[in-house]
Amino acid sequence: MNDPDYDIELIERYFDQDLTSDERALFERRLQHDEGFKRLFDRERHLIGAIKLEGALRDLEYLREIEKGALFQGSHYSSNNDSGSDSQSRLRRLIPYALSAAACLLIIAMAIFYFKPGSPQRMASKYTEENLLYLSTTMADGSDSLRLGIAAYNSSDYERARNIFESIAQETGSLEAMKNLGLSYLASGEYDKALHQFDMLSERDDIYVNWGPFYKAVTLMMRSAPGDEDVAKEVLQEVVQKQLPGHRVASGWLDRW
Amino acid sequence: MSDSSIIDLIKNGGQPALGKVYATYRSEFISWMTKAYPISEDDSKDVYQVTILIFYDNVRSGKLSEMASSIKTYLFGIGKNLAREHMRKAKRITSIDQKKWLREHLVEESQEPFDDNVFSIARAAVSRLGDPCRKLVELYYYQKKSMEEISTLLNYKNADSAKNQKYKCMAKLRQLYHEQEHSAQTTTTL
Fold first, then answer.
1. Contact A60 B143 (CB under 8 A)
2. How far, in Å, CA of A237 to CA of B1, rounded?
């Protein structure tokens, strides 16, 4: 029986040119007679094609701007022969770009001041962005409702995701629904409600793999209310000490705290 | 700039490098094209832009690791094919469809042509893929950056971390595709 997840991984490795020559030969033979596999392959081909086209259109727009002279006015990139341009007119054209550059520098300086390298909030924000904005459907326990909730979450429809997960958690007591409900609150910035979910999970001693404490720490770091960082640090120390899920990340954060 | 330094610039640079290469051959290309073919100056600029992007993609994907001819000759060769194609297909005066050319020559290349409907859904899914995923997959599949380069550009711990993130981003994109496909089917049946 075909495993769709395995097939997708194989197809992705094919496009990454990560197959051996024997694997590649088998893959191409399979494309000839396995219609389902060919459909998955075609979808991937179209998706990669769409990524490439969007990138190319972005570069095309850049070249059009050069052609208009908008990006490099007064420089040799301009389509106009500017050998006769006077220097004052060139300076005037540069003023908007100078102002934009100054505004960008100000924003960057504010970001650096607000999000100091190694600051708890910055570390949590980066972690959330890289790891928590997408839930895997393969982790779902087979329930259609849970998959619907995950689909809503992955589309950033957090309100719908919350409603679904809340309903499942109340009806069935599903721990995954509780966890995902907490993540939905976290993703939409409702830190108090997220903390409530992760606190409930943390108190459970019947869960073999309990992300509650680690996610509680992440939420406290994101909220950054007075006293939150100290509590987050304590929770992370507990996560590391008890080798709970997230302990490796927690250890790295504590080193940089 | 020598041909080899231009090739290095393309492999290592981003859009500023693209702009430099564009400027290097622009005047000569447009002057040649408007004299050799019944094409307006505006249309020849459109041809040149697509030519540069095709050339860029060929260098980044390793198809041009060794230049048999000079870059100028290569660019003029691409331009000639595009100009002839435009004249062959246009039964009346039409503007150049750069998006169509990019799709045919840079994206589809010598593969089986894309299904319009499937490609439209795929494009809609890609448009909904936010950052950092959009940036990551574009760096990998369009700009042909290695995972080492991507991990530096996007501040990941290492190449494995970037690769792992790429798998997650592609999974997210497939999910978006599935939703777009379902949405399109629902709209059709209403």
1. no
2. 57
Task: Tell me the three state secondary structure of residue A253.
Answer: helix
**pLDDT, tens only, A163-205:** 889 988 888 888 888 999 999 999 888 899 999 999 988 888 7
SS3 content of chain B, % helix, strand, coil (to 5): 75, 0, 25
Which residues in B lie closer than 8 A to residue A42 (C-beta atoms)? 115, 118
Are A134 and B168 an interchain contact pair (Cβ–Cβ within 8 Å)?
yes
Whether residues A56 and B142 touch (CB distance < 8 A) is answered with yes
> Which pair of structure tokens corresponds to residue A134?
């997408």
Query: Are B138 and A72 inside 8 Å of each other by CB?
Result: no
pLDDT digits (tens, 9 = 90+) for A104-134: 555 555 555 555 556 888 889 888 877 787 7
SS (H, E, C) A190-238: CHHHHHHHHHHHHHCCCCCCCCHHHHHHHHHHHHCCCCHHHHHHHHHHH
Please give the single-letter amino acid code of residue A21.
S
Task: Answer yes or no: do A67 and B179 touch at CB < 8 A.
Answer: no
pLDDT in tens, chain B (190 residues): 778 888 888 887 777 788 888 988 999 999 999 999 988 898 999 999 999 999 999 888 887 766 667 889 999 999 999 988 887 766 555 678 899 899 988 888 777 889 999 999 999 999 999 989 999 999 999 999 999 999 998 999 999 999 999 999 999 999 999 999 888 777 655 4
ipTM: 0.91
Contact status of A40 with chain B (Cβ, < 8 Å)? no
Whether residue B99 contacts residue A57, with contact meaning beta carbons closer than 8 Å, is answered with yes
User: How far is the C-alpha of A256 from the C-alpha of A102, rounded, in Å?
Assistant: 31
Between chain A and chain B, the number of residue pairs with CB atoms below 8 A apart is: 124
Which residues from B are below 8 Å from A57, CB to CB?
A: 99, 102
Asked if residues B26 and B49 have their Cβ atoms less than 8 Å apart, the reply is no
Cα A159 to Cα A156, A169, B121, B143, distances in angstroms: 9, 15, 25, 36
CB A12 within 8 A of CB B170: yes
Q: Is A129 on the interface with B (CB under 8 A)?
A: yes
Q: B41-72: per-residue pLDDT in tens?
A: 989 999 999 999 999 998 888 877 666 678 89
- Considering only CB atoms, A63 lies closest to which of B52, B134, B142, namely B52
- The whole-angstrom distance between A56's CA and the closest CA on chain B is 7
Cβ-nearest to B142 among A42, A45, A51: A51
